[in-house]
Amino acid sequence: MDNLTALFKEKNLKLTPQRYAIYKYLKSTKSHPSAEMIYEALRPDFPTMSLATVYKTVKTLIELGLVQELNVGEDNFRFDANVDTHPHIVCTSCGRVDDIEDAVFEHLNEEVENYTNYKVNTHKLYFYGVCPNCQGEL
Amino acid sequence: MDNLTALFKEKNLKLTPQRYAIYKYLKSTKSHPSAEMIYEALRPDFPTMSLATVYKTVKTLIELGLVQELNVGEDNFRFDANVDTHPHIVCTSCGRVDDIEDAVFEHLNEEVENYTNYKVNTHKLYFYGVCPNCQGEL
DNA sequence: ATATTAATAGATAATATTTTTCCTTAAAGA
DNA sequence: TCTTTAAGGAAAAATATTATCTATTAATAT
Ligand SMILES: [Mn+2]
Ligand SMILES: [Mn+2]
Ligand SMILES: [Zn+2]
Ligand SMILES: [Zn+2]
């Protein structure tokens, strides 16, 4: 019995095929998809699944601490099954959102406490630029 | 003739009382208001102004480079007449959004270029924590 | 295996935010 | 003052997300 099964059981949540598929898909991809993108990606395997189920499931996964929400400045949210605090970069030309690998900014929370009276818990860091693909198309 | 008048003239835009008031209000406040909050704040002086005008105006101001948009993870946008790249902190208890004064993170763009093939232009940095007011209420 | 029960999927309606449309008004310049 | 054209306001439309409601199904016990 794996972690996921145990966690769902602990919270009296049912591990349905839809939930399992959505989480597995988020774990498998580095594309930081929106709800709509998840819905489209899973449609071939789950043609009857509704978009509302995607929204409800990602919310559940977030509450479980299995997924985090990203806000890159679009009119929708994106989701990431990597729940560690890590920076992202957005291509302002094609809209893709990538992780920035190996860059560590965990010291930022402590560093900023010297400049504010807040108790600082976490941060979100989004870079904006032009991805290699879009640089080529100039 | 001030800068604002000149800039609007250059772009063939009209400097209406509504636009002037919205920009002046954004310049005057540190609260990073949403469109709705701007609308409510100016309602006493501009009781006939519509919310659509607020939305249209902030969009215009952004295109002029006079205002920037923030995405702290709410279901709406906030606006800031300080267009310099600077970090913000969000109170997860009461929702207020503050500047972090004096903290300089301008080196981040260059630093991160070592970890990605993107051409990096700018970034947005949001901290999350508990503000002094809300710390007292525990 | 079957029955029981409570949670969830899916359909749909509702809500919230933002944008668009369309017509009237008014800013800017002559 | 007159003309031109951008912009305001009201309302509808478009998007994204959430809530409601009923049938289904996962989980557990028998
Ligand atoms: Mn990521
Ligand atoms: Mn600010
Ligand atoms: Zn790109
Ligand atoms: Zn607070």
TrEMBL record, chains A, B:
Details of cofactor binding: Binds 1 zinc ion per subunit.
**Residues given in the record as Fe cation binding sites:** E106, H123
UniProt record, GO biological process: negative regulation of DNA-templated transcription; regulation of secondary metabolite biosynthetic process
Residues that bind Zn(2+): C91, C94, C131, C134
The organism's place on the tree of life at top rank: Bacteria
Respond yes or no to whether keyword Zinc is given for this record.
Answer: yes
The molecular function terms in GO held by this entry are: DNA-binding transcription factor activity; transcription cis-regulatory region binding; zinc ion binding
Asked if the keyword Transcription belongs to this entry, the reply reads yes
Keywords, alphabetical: DNA-binding, Iron, Metal-binding, Repressor, Transcription, Transcription regulation, Zinc
User: CDD domains given for it?
Assistant: Fur_like
Q: Which InterPro entries match?
A: FUR, Fur_C, WH-like_DNA-bd_sf, WH_DNA-bd_sf
Reported cofactor(s): Zn(2+); Mn(2+); Fe(2+)
Name the protein family: Belongs to the Fur family.
Protein name in UniProt = Fur family transcriptional regulator, peroxide stress response regulator
Q: Which organism is it from?
A: Caloramator proteoclasticus DSM 10124
Lineage of the organism? Bacteria, Bacillati, Bacillota, Clostridia, Eubacteriales
